[in-house]
Design brief:
Strands 3-2-4-5 form a 4-stranded parallel β-sheet, with helices on both faces. By secondary structure, it is of the alpha/beta class. The longest helix has 15 residues, at 30-44. The chain has helices spanning 30-44, 59-66, 81-92, 97-100, 115-123, 131-144, 173-180, 190-201, and strands spanning 9-10, 15-21, 47-53, 74-79, 105-109, 146-147, 153-156, 162-165.
């Protein structure tokens, strides 16, 4: 994210990055890939790193919610989309969230699902790639240091819990596939295929209610009230 009103920002040089890394993400190679692929590239780009390795669910959430972030120029998430979700929601719980959310965020693909990293790779003009090549491309984007704003979605549940999403939100079957396949993380992205087959075999019925506000029609010259 960049400050409001700026099309693009540029990371300073030298740059100090806090890297939040989940060693269990994807097939469990995130730390090895960071040391072998990412760290040498960042060193060449004059980006120093402090690596924070998560040890449990919500560990990254608590870290960015409570930590003094002023010592870092950017936050880098080396994992799948789930860890970035933790980071974004942790930042939004801070008393100084308006300032905290101006801190540039970077995603480096290291998980089972890397949708945001793949999207950034596409919009940066690179060919569709995966695994090590996608990681190399995203690291190169970080080395260039350009950052821009990113939209967030605010979602409130009936229980009063508020979440912030950067991709989308799901309920029912898709959510069950994601949750039930957690135990197959060692399979990488194939966990979702196995999870889908299992959820289809024991297909559940979902009952819920969706509430929304209709979009207000834009008032044009012909819709203006009579004097």
């Amino acid at each position: 994210l960049s400050p409001p009103g700026d099309s693009y920002g540029v990371l300073p040089r030298p740059c100090h990055a806090l890297v939040l890394l989940n060693p269990q993400s994807g097939s469990g190679r995130a730390l090895d890939d960071f040391q072998a692929v990412v760290q040498p590239m960042l060193a060449e780009a004059d980006i120093a790193t402090t690596v924070f390795i998560t040890e449990r669910p919500h560990h990254a959430h608590e870290k960015v919610r409570d930590e003094d972030l002023s010592q870092w120029d950017t936050l880098v998430v080396m994992s799948g989309d789930g860890l970035l979700f933790e980071v974004v929601n942790g930042l939004m719980e801070r008393p100084d969230w308006r300032e905290a959310m101006k801190k540039p965020l970077c995603i480096l693909p290291g998980g089972s699902g890397n949708a945001l990293a793949a999207s950034i790779n596409y919009y940066a003009g690179y060919d569709h790639v995966a695994k090590k090549k996608l990681l190399t491309n995203c690291t190169f984007i970080l080395c260039k240091g350009l950052h821009t704003q990113m939209d967030l979605v605010s979602l409130s549940t009936a229980s009063g819990k508020r979440f912030f999403s950067f991709l989308g939100f799901g309920w029912g079957f898709i959510s069950d596939v994601d949750i039930d396949s957690e135990k197959y993380r060692w399979l990488g992205s194939a966990r979702f295929t196995l999870g889908t087959l299992q959820c289809l075999a024991k297909l559940r019925v979902y009952q819920g209610r969706l509430s929304y506000l209709p979009m207000a029609a834009e008032q044009g010259p012909r819709d203006a009230p009579a004097p």
